[in-house]
Amino acid sequence: MDSRISVTSPLVILHGDEMAQVAFDHILKKFVNSRLDIQLEEIDLSAENRLLTNGQVVIDAIEALQRHGVGVKNAGMTVNRQQLEDLLRKHPDVDGNNLHPLATKSPNGAIRKGISGNITREDIKFRNLNIRRPEWVGRDIEVDTMEFGGIKDSFNQLSMATGVVKLMFVGSSGDPVELHRREVRKGDPWLLATNDLDDVKAWAHRFFQRAIAEKRDVYLGLKDTVIPGYDGAMRAAIEDIYHSDYKKQIEDLGLKYFYELIDAQAARIVSNPPKRALWGVPDNTTGRKLLKLVNQLKSISRMSAGGGDQYGSFNMAAKEDGILKVIVDGDEKHARRVRKGDPMLLMSNDREAIKDWVLQVFRDASRKDKEVYFGLKREYMEYDEVYSDVITEVRRELANEDTPPPSFMIMRPSSQLKKMITDPPRNALYPSQNLDGDIFSDISAALGGSLATASSIIESKDGTMLFEAPHGTAHDLYLKYLESDGKIAHFNPSALIFALANAGYRRQRNCYCRFER
Predict the structure, then answer these.
(1) Residues 6 or more apart from 208 whose CB is under 8 A from it?
(2) Which residues contact 352 (CB under 8 A, 6 or more apart)?
(3) Which of 110, 109, 90, 88 is nearest to 99 (CA)?
(4) Of the residues 255, 276, 305, 481, which has the fewest C-beta atoms closer than 10 A?
(5) What's the rounded Cα separation, in Å, for the pair 71 and 42?
(6) Side by side, which strands form the sheet with 513-514?
(7) CA gap 308, 340 in Å, rounded
């Protein structure tokens, strides 16, 4: 007789890459296949399979989650330029000129948007985990960021009507070309940001020259996986300058250069600060927050964090000099001149999705008795003002239902980040917008132990739940695993096991489980 526990409802399993996938296979074998009689809908979300299916597996994953309501996602790779070229050489039948964005971009944002989910991250409570506090005394770290451009100099407003936002480009031909369109509803915020590529290059020269003059290790952080046409364009320009003009000088001085995704890099530097470094964060909105944080780091305590997340911007580098226009419901709202290579970004948000996110924040905080600290840039961002209005609206609705919201405060994102780290309350939730949420939650996880000791949960309004491990694929450990022919397998599986356990518990609550002996 089968001694496994029979579970009547399926569970969605989204596979990933590298060392994380090696560990995931072992975990599924040990804790699921041998113990549960359950139907698993397994989808291969590896970077290679996303390329081979031209992104179709990402859509398959979204549809599976919508059908079954509960899933577990493993960490996956987002390929860089070199990795993409390697995969295309391995699969010559794949047309690299006609790839869907889902074939090469991170699937995370598409999945969150596809199930209308918001993400919450917090520490896993281990009774036997000893945490080493970061030592900032004697550390000499400077943050260097661009003064102008980007979101700081963006044009942003609330849509005055329900309709279509069009991004138009007028180049040398004089004919307007539609680059992108999306639907918005009245009250939805939208934003256009660009950066002058010449300014980015000038900053890069100053940045590397400063590192050489001050003899500092060099750190560069961007989010080129999520916005390859914007941060990716800046990274390419900066690293071209590094390799052509400064790499030899930096290496001759015995200095090192590190590039990393900004969220992972922020977690690494804050939790394990280098002795002497110059930290380059070209995006000035993120850079100013981290500059203020580094300048005030004195003592650090444990905390947890959460983040609202609605990815889905349009981003690309300009193909020629011209004029960029935003048309909303037939009316031209903004125009600006761009030059060839300038990174461009158009983003918007759904007011109803923002409201769902705020309701989720308040529900989670009330359930866990947490204080709430929102981070918003309201003084010059009309885009952020809508969040403040929605928070007030939700607060009134809850009060009218005799359901008082938890204690909460609205502060600038830089103040929110500093409070999280230098003066954290005992039990708090820190809701942040997409990129801020990625960075802040990675810092929080690193300070609570590591990304392998943190949980990540995506929850939608209809109750769909996706549990995942917030860490990456452990590329360096995977290389050692391959070099040793599988004999050396170092990996902390805690977050993956916790995600699987959470999903199993959620699945059990929503179905009838039959025990046979």
Answers:
(1) 218, 241, 242, 245, 246, 250
(2) 185
(3) 88
(4) 276
(5) 10
(6) 36-37, 5-7, 513-514
(7) 34
State how far the Cα of 415 lies from the Cα of 378, in Å rounded to an integer.
13
Question: Is the separation of the CB atoms in 430 and 440 below 8 Å?
Answer: yes
Please give the Cα distance from 364 to 370 (Å, whole number).
8
Please name the residue that has the structure tokens 């919450």: 120
Secondary structure E strands in 267-321:
276-280, 305-307, 314-317
Q: Rounded to an integer, what distance in angstroms lies between the CA atom of residue 159 and that of residue 180?
A: 17
Residue-wise pLDDT tens digits, 6-15: 888 899 999 9
Residue type present at position 291? L
- Indicate the CATH number of 5-131+350-514 among 2.30.30.40, 3.40.50.2300, 3.40.718.10, 3.20.20.20: 3.40.718.10
Separation between Cα atoms, residue 92 and residue 52, nearest integer Å: 11
**Strand blocks (E) in 359-507:** 371-375, 408-411, 428-429, 454-460, 465-468
- Spatial separation of the C-alpha atoms in residues 517 and 511, rounded to whole Å: 19
Average pLDDT of span 18-32:
94
Q: Is 299 exposed, middle or buried (0-12, 13-18, 19+ CB in 10 A)?
A: exposed
Q: Whole-model pTM?
A: 0.77
Residue ranges per structural domain of the chain: 5-131+350-514
458: helix, strand or coil = strand
Contact (CB, 8 A) for 496 and 469:
yes
Q: Which of 23, 33, 3, 65 is nearest to 507 (CA)?
A: 65
Smallest CA-to-CA distance from 435 within 269, 221, 199 is with 221
Query: Is residue 87's pLDDT more than 70?
Result: yes
* Strand arrangement of the beta sheet that strand 217-222 belongs to: 140-144, 276-280, 217-222, 257-261
Cβ–Cβ < 8 Å for 19, 476 = no
Per the CB < 8 A criterion, the answer to whether 359 and 460 are in contact is: no
Per residue in 129-163, pLDDT (tens digit) is 666 666 776 788 999 999 988 888 889 888 888 99
Give the span between the Cα atoms of 54 and 454, in whole angstroms: 32
Residue 236, amino acid: A
Q: In Å, how far are 100, 288, 351, 379, 415 from 291, measured between CA atoms?
A: 37, 5, 31, 19, 12
- Beta strand ranges found along 137-275 (DSSP E): 140-144, 155-158, 163-170, 176-184, 189-194, 217-222, 257-261
